[in-house]
Design brief:
The complex is a heterodimer of chains A (186) and B (652).
Chain A lengths: L1 H15 L17 E4 L4 E3 L7 E7 L6 H15 L5 E7 L7 H11 L3 E5 L2 H10 L5 E4 L5 E4 L4 E4 L5 E5 L5 H14 L2
Parallel strand pairs in A: 3-4, 4-5
Antiparallel strand pairs in A: 1-2, 1-5, 3-8, 6-7, 8-9
Chain B lengths: L1 H9 L9 H4 L35 E3 L5 E3 H5 L3 E7 L9 H17 L1 H6 E7 L7 H8 L10 E5 L4 H10 L4 E5 L6 E6 L3 E4 L5 E5 L6 H29 L37 H5 L18 H11 L63 H4 L1 H5 L9 H10 L6 H5 L7 H13 L7 H6 L9 H11 L22 E3 L2 H6 L6 E7 L2 E6 H7 L10 H4 L7 E3 L21 H9 L19 H12 L6 H10 L22
Parallel strand pairs in B: 3-4, 4-5
Antiparallel strand pairs in B: 1-2, 3-8, 6-7, 8-9, 10-13, 11-12
Helix pairs in contact in B: 4-8, 8-22, 10-15, 17-22, 21-22
The chains are: A alpha+beta (186), B alpha+beta (652).
């Protein structure tokens, strides 16, 4: 089921984007990537095969959305405690979000959350894969904030991106979708 | 560091401050759509959502990558259409839409009608990123959220197909470029959600500040509620109108509020008429009507009818040669003015009352709404001399003018046995033409008097039973054994005039700002700028008897669907409003006619009554209108007594 669906998506996306100059043109969304986790260890998404992954992009200096989203994500993870579920937070601000900063952050929100960082080039590759656009916005005082979307990416147990949950939907909805994904790929 | 996180977690949804000072980032207030409304919404159905224009069509892609028309995707449902892009980073933008749509989708699980009648559509304005595949990933969310209701994700194949759609919906989207100008990093756009009805008309537009699921649901339910009413009335109201092909305004503005409107106005000179042998209608009464009463001294003749017809359409019968009888008694508008509550006379002067129809005026024993004249011969001079109608200063002025117009030479003499144009002969000629505008043999007549059981629809038959029974309408709109005038030719107080005289008005009034577009205006505002309604005490003005205050003549109901608006002041635009007025028992006052009382009619009975009234349209209406079209329109020309300018005068 999941395989045939993503297979169809891939064909469509390459067909539709012919002639466009999009950098996403030929590459299917999702797929494996490698980054560094909050403990400084090399991390590959494929390590999590067999689990449903809740993937979220943000940055720890984020003043509003990320904490909200992570609080919600944390609630989802608590609700699904004991299930094969893993939350992953990928920073879009690798300059400031070192593994140490990430550890502080993920420990605070949920110890079972994996925080990932890497070189700017590595981060670019991952965000391009998931079509996450972000931008640095300077703020008065020499600092900056990051402009980034707040979608939640749900990856099924085979490692395929299954659903994108837009920001604003309640945690109960995410729990509902994750439970269905768990049941789908046993 | 920890302290910063802690502050965030205090509020899980609404986060206004916190680490802003440390991170240097500005945090933003969250739109009301994420929380509870802090004000009470008006009850669904208690307000109006006038159409704001047509929702444009366009070429889109569904999540399977198939090309579709946007209108096709709307189907026959109500649609909430949002323009979004999936990588939007403004929480009060596209994600707000997702949040609100999700709430509505959840409501659809509970409300089956909502699930069936409403469709949510998110249309991306980022075709490069939001491919059908991407949107399918979005849509996948709701495979699990129950199958009640539909939330569809659409995109376009390219910016080329997208741009006309954005333009049509006035969505200004600016692509934000990265510093090196290379790749778009986002979009700035103003969030707009459109509520579209099954006729593809936009009924509301929401910005971020007003995007709240409770508000949207109230609006959708308002439209659903009002749809029930409009539908019933449209079905019952439009059908009888088809009895007459020609009884439509020359400039038909129906649908004017939609961008698909194309003018249907007819050039007067292109309008083809067909002369009819009018005397036949006067001498051989149609089914359902008696022989027309004719004064002994004014029997019908072809000459008199032709002369009266010529006078009726002659603009020179007014002070400034512009205004004919037919300009208020418009043949293709039921020989009245469908577009005016109260008449407008020469040079735009206001007239107090509604133009009565001339159809079947032959049978009227009282003329004018207050019954101040009792023959058509005399009645004709009323409008001719009224300063706010045709504006003539005197009887002699009219007669002298006609006598000097070349075209009328010998006509009066031929019609009236050698008699010249006089107060009497002019009245007689006009009366003769009007007397021939007899209209019967309606579906009702064929059923009731012609004994054709199939002539009247079952609904109209039910309506007849209400008319003659529970409604008691027949007490004044009388039906006799061999004929029916649908008027008792008497005057009654229904409270309509009393209400106006006493200044009893609803707090808000529906005002037309363009054809088909209404707004509700507070009474206080109208009072500030509007002209005070003219004093009108009805029959009292004629008799000076206090008992006759606010009494007006019973109009015939024949051709009633052609002669809107209704009542002596034209204040009711539709038959439904008239029925509602009588159903409520009119307006109580000391002089209220005892036959007017609350009726407790059901909605069905009201619909049936309208169907019945729709069956009263005469079979010869189009013949009479076509004959009017064929009549000469008298206009000022060289040689006329009042001809003063033109090519003869050189202007320096």
């Amino acid at each position: 089921m999941a395989l045939s669906r993503s297979g169809r998506c891939l064909i469509l996306s390459s067909w539709l984007c012919l002639g466009s100059h999009s950098i996403w043109a030929v590459e299917a969304m999702s797929g494996n990537f490698a980054l560094t986790d909050q403990d400084g260890q090399r991390f590959q998404l494929d390590q999590l095969k067999g689990k449903v992954v809740l993937l979220f992009f943000g940055y720890t200096f984020c003043p509003d959305i990320c904490p909200t989203e992570l609080t919600n994500l944390s609630r989802v993870l608590d609700t699904l405690d004991g299930e094969s579920v893993q939350g992953v937070f990928v920073t879009v601000d690798p300059d400031r979000d070192t593994p140490e900063v990430l550890k502080d952050y993920t420990d605070y929100f949920n110890r079972r959350l994996i925080g990932l960082t890497g070189s700017p080039a590595q981060i670019d590759r991952v965000t391009q894969k998931y079509r996450v656009k972000f931008r640095k916005l300077p703020v008065p005082g020499g600092s900056y904030s990051m402009n980034h979307p707040s979608n939640l990416y749900l990856i099924d147990r085979t490692g395929k991106l299954s659903t994108i949950v837009p920001y604003g939907l309640p945690p109960e909805h995410v729990v509902d979708v994750v439970r269905h994904l768990l049941a789908e790929n046993l | 560091m920890l302290a910063r996180f802690f502050r965030y977690s205090l509020t899980s949804v609404l986060i206004f401050s916190g680490g802003a000072s440390q991170s240097g980032a500005q945090s933003l207030p969250v739109a009301p759509g994420y929380g509870e409304l802090n004000y009470t919404l008006p009850e669904a159905g208690s307000y109006q959502l006038p159409p704001l224009g047509t929702a444009a069509d366009g070429e889109v892609l569904d999540t399977s990558g198939h090309t579709q028309r946007l209108h096709q995707q709307f189907g026959s449902q109500y649609v909430l259409l949002a323009f979004i892009y999936s990588t939007c980073s403004d929480v009060n933008g596209c994600p707000l839409t997702a949040h609100v749509f999700y709430k509505i989708k959840s409501e659809m699980k509970r409300d089956k009608i909502l699930a069936r009648r409403l469709k949510l559509i998110s249309l991306s304005f980022d075709p490069l990123v939001d491919t059908p595949e991407m949107l399918q990933l979005y849509g996948n969310n709701f495979r699990y959220a129950g199958n009640a209701g539909e939330w569809q994700f659409l995109t376009t194949s390219s910016e080329k197909t997208l741009d006309p759609i954005l333009r049509a919906y006035n969505q200004q989207v600016q692509r934000e470029l990265k510093d090196d100008g290379s790749n778009s990093a986002g979009y700035s756009h103003v969030l707009r959600i459109f509520l579209i009805d099954p006729d593809k008309r936009i009924r509301n537009i929401y910005s971020a500040d007003f995007l709240h699921h409770d508000l949207l649901l109230a609006d959708v339910r308002t439209l659903l509620k009002q749809e029930d009413q409009t539908d019933t009335w449209n079905r019952s109201g439009s059908q009888p109108l088809q009895v007459s092909r020609l009884s439509n305004p020359g400039d038909d503005k129906r649908g004017y509020e939609q961008t698909s409107y194309r003018t249907r106005s007819l050039a007067l000179e292109l309008r083809q008429g067909k002369e009819a042998d009018l005397i036949r209608f006067g001498t051989e009464p149609p089914l359902g009507l008696p022989a027309i009463p004719t004064p002994l001294d004014n029997p019908l003749s072809r000459e008199k009818i032709a002369l009266g017809r010529k006078l009726f359409y002659d603009r020179r019968l007014s002070l400034n040669d512009t205004f004919s009888c037919a300009m208020c008694h418009i043949p293709d508008q039921g020989f009245t003015s469908n577009e005016l509550a109260t008449a407008v006379g020469i040079e735009g002067r206001s007239v107090r009352r509604n133009t009565p129809t001339i159809y079947n005026s032959a049978y009227a024993t009282l003329l004018f709404h207050d019954g101040r004249e009792d023959s058509l011969e005399q009645q004709a001079w009323g409008p001719l001399l009224a300063s706010n109608e045709m504006g003539n200063p005197s009887i002699g002025y009219v007669l002298n003018k006609i006598r000097q117009i070349q075209e009328y030479q010998g006509l009066f003499e031929a019609a009236f046995d050698g008699k010249d144009a006089s107060m009497m002969t002019l009245g007689m000629a006009l009366a003769s033409y009007q007397r021939t505008l007899v209209s019967g043999s309606s579906a009702f007549d064929r059923w009731y008097y012609g004994n054709d059981p199939n002539a009247l629809s079952p609904g109209a038959q039910r309506g007849f039973r209400v008319f003659a029974g529970k409604g008691g309408c027949v007490a004044c709109h009388t039906i006799e054994k061999r004929y029916a005038l649908f008027t008792d030719n008497r005057l009654h107080n229904t409270g309509m005039g009393y209400r106006s005289s006493m200044g009893i008005h609803p707090e808000k009034e529906k005002i037309i700002i363009a054809p088909g577009v209404f707004i509700e205006v507070d009474r206080a505002v109208i009072d500030q700028v509007g002209e005070k309604p003219p004093a009108d005490v009805g029959r009292y003005e004629v008799t000076q008897s206090p008992h006759d205050r606010w009494k007006y003549k019973t109009p015939s109901l024949r051709n009633i669907v052609l002669t809107a608006p209704y009542m002596h002041d034209g204040s009711l635009g539709s038959l439904k409003e008239v029925i509602d007025f009588y159903d409520a028992g009119g307006v109580p006052n000391d002089l209220l006619d005892p036959r007017i009382r609350p009726l407790n009619l059901s909605e069905q009975e009201k619909v049936d009554l309208v169907l019945f009234m729709g069956s009263l349209t005469g079979s010869n209406v189009d013949t009479l209108v076509a004959d009017a079209f064929a009549a000469p329109v008298g206009d000022i020309g060289k040689g006329d007594p009042t001809w003063v300018s033109g090519t003869d005068v050189e202007v320096k």
